[in-house]
């Protein structure tokens, strides 16, 4: 039975092979884009064939992990189409469009063709991987009592890192950014726990220096990363404050309320009526004040002990609630 890492490496090898063959076809153009019709059909055949193979691999992977689906999933249905649902040949023709835009921009003809050849190779790689990812998702949906866990392949970005090992239902969409390397790992609905990609900070390529310092000082990696979802940037584009975690059930709010009980203070909250939510009408959202970001905390001329206290106070350190609240005093 293939592991997620083995499955992914096989898909990457397939995508790389398709990209290499596509690059060889591109080289036949020289710098004459009028020759495109001569390679377009062969190029589309190469990519669609790789897509079908990747889709077949994905379907087989799901069957190996959780058993056969209730209905046959056709791998051929994933060939010849781009990720956005448009015909594949229209996406491949984008390399010609890119080239025409680059000609006359100051680059030599050779540089333009090399640049757009790289664009084509990356597009081919992504389409092959997306076909495999799409077929895997369909096979999961067609298999009773199954869901999937997001398996994150490192190195990765921080947005993907916090989703590593998270369980999703069979009908949950697979959100990704361009060139995302994450894959589905099919699991039974009754066994979603205990699986993780084991992401560590050194495997995340886009953490800021402040984020790395906060994690090294004991802050929870997920709290630090998720804080950037509700950020308020400064004039220089640096994050100053965040509203993430400040709702009544957010960890930062729990810490503030526990700290207030220990000191006899009162936590100020703002309330906003957000209308109907589910079966609850006039749902009221309560928030505490926005909290400072790790960048703002470390921008101050303070000791490490004071930095840790502020990290605890503003909900970046997790653990026993009372202990964290006492640490923040």
Can you characterise this structure?
The termini are far apart. The strands form three sheets. Strands 2-1-3 form a three-stranded antiparallel sheet. Strands 4-5-8 form a three-stranded antiparallel sheet. It has helices spanning about 5-25, 35-65, 90, 95-100, 110-140, 160, 210-215, 220-225, 250-265, 295-300, 305-315, 320-325, and strands at about 145-150, 165-170, 185-190, 230-235, 240, 270-275, 285, 290. Helix content is about 45%, strand content about 10%. Helix 1 (about 5-25) runs antiparallel to helix 2, helix 2 packs parallel to helix 5 (about 110-140) and helix 4 packs antiparallel against helix 5. It folds into two domains: about 5-190, no CATH class; about 205-325, no CATH class.
Provide the helix percentage: 40-55%
Radius of gyration based on Cα positions: 25 Å
Strand arrangement, major sheet: 2-1-3
- The number of helical elements comes to 12
Q: What distance lies between the first and last C-alpha atoms, to the nearest angstrom?
A: 52 Å
Protein structure class:
mainly alpha
Low-confidence stretches: none
Number of strands: 8
Beta-strand fraction estimate:
5-15%
Major sheet attributes: 3 strands, antiparallel
Secondary-structure element order, N to C? HHHHHEHEEHHEEHEEEHHH
Integer tally of domains: 2
- What value does the average pLDDT take? 87
Q: What's the shape?
A: globular
